[in-house]
Amino acid sequence: MEEFKVQTAKHPAPNHAPMRPHSDQSKDRASKRLSSESNGTSEGGAGAATPVEVTALEEAFRRFAIHGDTRATGKEMHGKNWSKLCKDCGVIDGKAITLTDVDIVFSKVKNKSSRTITFNQFKEALGELARKRFKDKTGEAAAEEVFKMIEGKSPVISGVTRAVASPTVSRLTDTTKFTGSHKERFDETGRGKGKAGRVDMVDTSGYVSGYKHAGSYEKKVHQKPQPKAM
Which keywords does this chain's UniProt record carry (predicted)? Predict the structure, then answer.
């Protein structure tokens, strides 16, 4: 019996794997951790983080929120840009909704100690305006109509004036049709003469006004061949 126990101790069971060095086990754990981090998971069993889809309304909110402010993050919007959004997107119609209505709603939905509104407060404010703008629709249907007016929009850049092409403007700016003193301010090509077209310049050349051969005598004298010296 004792001899059988000794033989069993010398020969381990074939199902047990041999012990691996501690350094190899640490490498395996590190490789698993790196693999799980690259796949967006952890050893705790957390699933991969899915990206949040940004709606067209949220994108419009972000564009107006950062307009004119380099330090803005796009998560909050102050009153000036809120008013600009309502104006640029046509929410303000001057009848059902005015600029005063927009300012009142902004003060109503924002926190008392804050000067900005979040996206959720932004939607709440639009819902308030929608009920005034579309009185014949339910609350949700009216809000959807206002959302459509804003979705995908961007701030309108002001200060750029475009030339208006119309027959009236063209006729008023055609210098060939000018008469009197106005005609004297432009040459044949329509280019302004500057001071010479506005002020009577005194001609001290000695020639009569309107004489077309001014300076011709000097040209003839210079062009006349000189007698050869003997």
Answer: Cytoplasm
Domains, the chain, in order of start with CATH, read 56-149 (1.10.238.10)
CA pair distance 185, 175, nearest whole angstrom: 9
Non-local (6+) Cβ contacts of 65 within 8 A are 72, 73, 74, 75, 76, 77, 81
| Residue corresponding to tokens 């909704």 | 97
Which own/partner contact pairs does 121-130 have at CB distance under 8 Å and 24+ positions apart? Answer: 122/61, 122/77, 122/82, 123/57, 125/82, 126/91, 126/150, 129/86, 129/91, 129/97, 129/101, 129/102, 129/105
Position of tokens 């010398």?
A: 10
Alpha-carbon gap, residue 212 to 88, rounded angstroms: 62
CA distance 80 to 117: 11
CA distances 47 to 29, 38, 39, 40, Å, are 19, 12, 9, 7
Q: What is the pLDDT of residues 125-175, one digit of tens each?
A: 999 999 999 989 888 999 999 999 999 999 988 765 555 566 776 666 676
